[in-house]
Design brief:
The protein has a single domain, classed as Spore Coat Polysaccharide Biosynthesis Protein SpsA, Chain A (Alpha-Beta Complex). The chain has about 260 residues and is an alpha/beta fold. The strands form 2 sheets. Strands 1-9-6-8-5-2-3-4 form an 8-stranded mixed β-sheet, with helices on both faces. Strands 7-10 form a two-stranded parallel ribbon. The structure holds guanosine-5'-triphosphate and magnesium ion. Guanosine-5'-triphosphate (GTP) binds next to strand 2, strand 3 and helix 4.
Length: about 260
């Protein structure tokens, strides 16, 4: 059954009380200032999280900081080092694979830059009791982009509007990178067939998940624009995202015609 709803997070966190393990995948490129604050905040949460930092040889030493955390917390922090900036989508895939190997029951994805706040993870895990994917959403009642400049807000809204219209997506925040995936679902998805290597991986996976009939829920989050480090979204990434939507939409329409 396909469901998209937007009830606020439930306080009785059944995933937590069932003692299931969550791994947080944090892709990083030049996030030294942020990762040094984020990892301790994640480890201090009551959810006994494992943290997987997927770093793409950041010139600012983010990977070395992740190594230092792994040295201090060998059972909880796992750095993955890639040799070059290979894209957000493939970074998620690398993180999913390691989380699966470590037997995590679910995988949280979040940005390193505090746009996604660790304090909101508990409510998201709580919603996984009745879902396969939980999206931390700006665009359901109670959610917000707190301090985004108008240009950034317009870009996000436009990307969401076009993707939803072209692909028939039911979720409201389809570009959100703050998500919790149930591992059983990840194991069943044909992730090897995903063609997006960058930001549009988020749209493509959501399309795959909704089409597959998995249960999707959205829980409101407050999104804060980054205050440290630089954005990695480029014009090229925006163009690639438009191409992804066009390609998926074409496939959707030709599938309909064949029926
Ligand atoms: N490993 C890896 N991480 C990446 C890559 N591109 C972006 N990231 C990380 O992915 C997360 C999201 O990137 P951001 O630049 O914050 O993108 P955004 O949040 O959509 O945009 P802003 O709001 O402008 O910051 C951050 O933690 C980045 O460091 C990449 O090619 N490889
Ligand atoms: Mg960001």
């Amino acid at each position: 059954m396909k469901t998209v709803d937007s009830r606020p997070g439930l306080a009785g966190d059944s995933i937590r009380s069932a003692g299931l393990g969550a791994a947080v995948v944090v892709p990083t490129y030049n996030e030294a200032e942020n990762i040094s604050r984020l990892v301790p905040e994640l480890l201090a949460l009551p959810d006994n999280l494992t943290v997987i930092v997927v770093d793409d040889a950041s010139p600012d030493g983010t990977g070395k900081l992740a190594d230092a955390f792994a040295h201090d917390f060998p059972q909880r922090v796992f750095p993955l080092h890639r040799t070059a900036k290979l894209g957000l989508g493939t970074a998620y895939l690398a993180g999913f694979q390691l989380a699966g190997e470590r037997g995590a029951d679910c995988v949280v994805t979040m940005d390193a830059d505090f746009s996604h706040h660790p304090s909101q993870i508990g409510a998201m895990l709580g919603r996984l009791a009745g879902a396969d994917l939980v999206i931390g959403s700006r665009y359901v009642p109670g959610g917000a982009s707190v301090n985004s400049p108008p240009g950034r807000r317009a870009l996000s809204k436009t990307a969401n509007f076009i993707s939803r219209a072209a692909l028939g997506l039911k979720a409201h925040d389809v570009t959100a990178g703050f998500r919790v995936y149930r591992s059983q679902m990840l194991a069943a998805l044909p992730l090897a067939s995903i063609f997006s290597s960058g930001y549009s991986f988020l749209i493509e996976t959501l399309y795959m998940i909704e089409r597959g009939g998995w249960r999707v829920v959205e829980t409101p989050i407050q999104f804060h624009d980054r205050t440290a480090g630089r954005s990695k979204i480029s014009r090229g990434e925006i163009a690639k995202a438009m191409y992804t939507v066009a390609r998926l939409s074409g496939r959707r329409l030709s599938g309909r015609r064949r029926r």
